[in-house]
Amino acid sequence: MNDPIIAIDGVKKTFDGGFHALKQVDLHIQRGEIFALLGPNGAGKTTLISIVCGLVSASEGRVTVDGFDNVSDYRKARERIGLVPQELTNEAFETVWNTVTFSRGLFGKPPNPGHIEKVLKALSLWEKRHNRLMTLSGGMKRRVLIAKALSHEPRVLFLDEPTAGVDVELRRDMWNVVRRLRDDGVTIILTTHYIEEAEEMADRIGVINHGEIVLVEEKHALMKKLGSKQLTLQLHRPLAAIPNALGAYDLTLAAEGSELVYTYDGRQVPEGPGISTLLNALNAEGISYKDLHTRQSSLEDIFVDLVKERA
Ligand SMILES: Nc1ncnc2c1ncn2[C@@H]1O[C@H](COP(=O)(O)OP(=O)(O)OP(=O)(O)O)[C@@H](O)[C@H]1O
């Protein structure tokens, strides 16, 4: 892959006390993509983000942001990143405008009221710019966190659990905000527990478990897998091999040849021609079955399987 905006190579993290939070992480994030990092509690998501952002140091390995090493070129790497943390830690008595303007100053960037205005308008906070943070709703406070993270015009935005605990309507609003940012050329990396969120938002999905990336795939490729269904036939007599005459079907044998598994595109009607022609073909081959059932895989199944395998 060429010229990633973030390159994480051979990163490991062992905390004091010997806990291996990240075992070996290699991950490249492409410019302009929305990347969703999925993983159960304690998988290492926040640790990984914290390392990329320079808040936690890696025990081994290297991270570059837009080509800048995040240790030897810390400032350049860090100013390219916006981080929206999980927790709401806002200054209650400050106004929206001052908080966001101050955040920009922390990065040593000269004032740019025009940029702050644009950010506040994009996040529907413009009308509230003179409000103190304590007078905002929970959803607006979350928007302020995003505004702060965008105040210094970062090229990459990390969103750690952006919609944890927010209602459905606000979640949809946040998704729209994230899409608009991506349209403006910002690369987005979000961590989430919500599989639906990853399905809805991401260009690519990564799954992390026990400090290891166990899957990285284009969402569309994953969705194709998700769209697939399986028909399992329990045969009367086990087969040693799949007959050549059935070579046109995506078939595998399971349970020592006593089950024939047919994988097909679940977006067809299940009883459609795919299955009936297969059943006719089996009949012609003299293969009989005593039972059959279908199942559809979902991202949730894939996720649960991956996480279970490594448990
Ligand atoms: N400072 C620390 N010292 C020791 N262990 C830590 C420290 N910070 C995190 N850990 C451990 O590292 C593991 C990964 O934690 P991390 O916060 O990265 O998980 P996560 O995937 O973000 O989880 P969640 O979804 O719950 O936010 C956990 O087992 C956690 O207890």
TrEMBL record:
SUPFAM superfamilies: P-loop containing nucleoside triphosphate hydrolases. Signal peptide: none annotated. CDD domains: ABC_DR_subfamily_A. Transmembrane segments: none annotated. Residues 6-235 form the ABC transporter domain. PROSITE patterns: ABC_TRANSPORTER_1, ABC_TRANSPORTER_2. The keyword Nucleotide-binding applies. GO terms for molecular function: ATP binding. Keywords: ATP-binding, Nucleotide-binding, Transport. InterPro entries: AAA+_ATPase, ABC_transporter-like_ATP-bd, ABC_transporter-like_CS, ABC_transporter_ATP-binding, P-loop_NTPase. Pfam families: ABC_tran. This is ABC transporter ATP-binding protein. It comes from Halomonas dongshanensis. The lineage of its organism: Bacteria, Pseudomonadati, Pseudomonadota, Gammaproteobacteria, Oceanospirillales.
